[in-house]
């Protein structure tokens, strides 16, 4: 059981940023309106995520650390059919298997619970006084899997990956307030107002947010909206184009290309825009066929969607008479 956890952990937990991603997703699933992420030494020493979500009922705490005990579905293809980000009941057991983990949680109906695990085994259990919500602290990640530990890069690199994850989640959920603190220093913060432009400003600065054109469009099957930053502020890489389907970050080359098409001749060769696009659709039109962490999506009626995206972005710039 513990060995299985350690092996499976390698799939879910690649580095500190993967822990941050899984914990934030759980907070979102718990209906949090505020998520605080506190990091020490790029997450290598500790990662603490505190939310104001629904919390765990006392009887659910232990179960959550048993592999697949909470699995919501059977196969990856169902990923977009469910309302929650988590679905396999794998993250918490996997993270716990390769760290020291401490959980403090309260659902506001029962006394709070305090649980401490070492390498997936519960070593202390008690009640706790706590406000509604959950705090999970992960320390000494990979302390018992030296091979994995060795593979990690510098604090600087790991912190960069964590920042990417938090930025992405903030862009996906503008109505959730995110705070990222590293060694007591606030690196990133959003206000949870639901205003995407504010989130963009938090990620890339006010100048970039001011240069962003908002767009909106819909077709029979799709709704798209977002912010396309004017090409005067462009980048040398593609990773500043964020595509979210039903609030889930995905990668999809045809969709990326349709965004580039929307920019058309405005973008210089070798340059890429900063752009955030939210796509909403019936979940039955989207499918993931690869590892869920990579989130490469396949979309039915892709042609319709691509045309809608290009046209909507093109219009946004046209409207503003670029
Ligand atoms: P999954 O998200 O796939 O269900 P996880 O291992 O990530 O699996 O989490 C297991 C379960 O623990 C969740 O289904 C949820 O019931 C509970 N849980 C985890 N994190 C939180 C949280 N922050 N607040 C409330 N419940 C949580
Ligand atoms: Mg989860």
From TrEMBL:
<comment type="function">
    <text>This protein is involved in the repair of mismatches in DNA. It is required for dam-dependent methyl-directed DNA mismatch repair. May act as a 'molecular matchmaker', a protein that promotes the formation of a stable complex between two or more DNA-binding proteins in an ATP-dependent manner without itself being part of a final effector complex.</text>
</comment>
<keyword id="KW-0255">Endonuclease</keyword>
<feature type="domain" description="DNA mismatch repair protein S5">
    <location>
        <begin position="200"/>
        <end position="318"/>
    </location>
</feature>
<dbReference type="GO" id="GO:0004519">
    <property type="term" value="F:endonuclease activity"/>
</dbReference>
<protein>
    <recommendedName>
        <fullName>DNA mismatch repair protein MutL</fullName>
    </recommendedName>
</protein>
<keyword id="KW-0378">Hydrolase</keyword>
<comment type="similarity">
    <text>Belongs to the DNA mismatch repair MutL/HexB family.</text>
</comment>
<keyword id="KW-0234">DNA repair</keyword>
<keyword id="KW-0540">Nuclease</keyword>
<keyword id="KW-0227">DNA damage</keyword>
